[in-house]
Amino acid sequence: MSAPDDAAVGNRKGSRRAIAFVLRLREAGVLVFLAALGTLFAVLTNTFLTTQNLTTVASSAAILAIAACAQAVVLLTRNLDVSVGAMMGFAAYLTADFAARHPAIAPWQLVLIPLAIGAALGAINGLLVAYGKVPALIATLGTMSLYRGLTYVYAHGQEVTSSRLPPWMLTSVDARIAGVPLLAAAATAIVVIVWAFLQYFPWGRRIYAVGSNPLAAFYFGLRAERVVLMAYTLCGVLCGAAGLLYAARVGTVTVVLASGWEMSSLAAAVIGGVSVSGGAGSVIGAALGAVVLATIDNGLVLLAVPEFWRMFIQGVAIVAAVAADAAIASGIRASLRTRGAK
């Protein structure tokens, strides 16, 4: 390889490292922003810092953190998944219906159902994107409608009421471990497990490699198609877990469960520093982004802000986070090109 080629490769590697470093700083910035939000809402309302309200925020953020984690895994491969909410809803409804028909089922057996359903749905998305070469946005838009439609067909317009679900399914989400909601503890464990997989296991590192530089990954012998398929399958498994917890939390499961969570999960991921350009960011940051969104939503509810404005603020957050990510990446690349030209 010639010297110019070596310099180009070095610049690309340096660019990615610089972007990753800045995104890690953004994760720290999310914590600072979260503290500022908490202070603001504590001043504006008398109930924000109550134990009951903070428990509500933690429970809301817990499920969104898992969905954001699922979205982040796919974003790291330079793709996205807008069928996250539909997968959650489909897995949740089928699991709740099965639990209602078989109330004596053991908890560990029931947990396997949404995970398997999510894995199958995620694998379909992965096959379309990785091997079918369908653009991720188009493929998952199509499957979003497909999965939501299948839920309607299966349900026949009926909902699964809380009175039909096993009692343990409803009470478990309200349980606490050393004062911490079990829901928040479960979400934290899931996020940490996925983070460890991405950081310390070869297949997890391949997700970063493919998203960071697909061409280099190809020359190193990585099968990008397999990695993307695995990422979408993992995304589906996480959506299945989130769907089960969401169903247990709301009690009554309808066919529109988790509608709109596609944008919420995407917003949480990008706010938490996961790059839409792939290869940079972490699921820890995505989870922090979920806490930010849950805090904003809770605080605005306490302030009696209309639903429209809450949606508007979430949209602004998405646009601002994506714009910041693009500006950071562009600035670093320009700086490296200038440095390389000297």
UniProtKB/TrEMBL annotation:
Transmembrane segments: 21-44, 56-75, 82-100, 106-129, 136-155, 175-198, 227-248, 254-276, 283-305, 311-332
Pfam families in the cross-refs: BPD_transp_2
GO cellular component, one term: plasma membrane
InterPro entries: ABC_transp_permease
Membrane topology value: Multi-pass membrane protein
Keywords: Cell inner membrane, Cell membrane, Membrane, Transmembrane, Transmembrane helix, Transport
CDD domains: TM_PBP1_transp_AraH_like
Single GO term (MF): transmembrane transporter activity
Subcellular location(s) of the protein: Cell membrane
Coiled-coil boundaries: none
Record PANTHER family: ABC TRANSPORTER PERMEASE PROTEIN YPHD-RELATED-RELATED (PTHR32196), AUTOINDUCER 2 IMPORT SYSTEM PERMEASE PROTEIN LSRC (PTHR32196:SF29)
Assembly mode: The complex is composed of two ATP-binding proteins (LsrA), two transmembrane proteins (LsrC and LsrD) and a solute-binding protein (LsrB).
Functional description taken from the UniProt entry: Part of the ABC transporter complex LsrABCD involved in autoinducer 2 (AI-2) import. Probably responsible for the translocation of the substrate across the membrane.
Name of this protein: Autoinducer 2 import system permease protein LsrC
Species assigned in the record: Roseiarcus fermentans
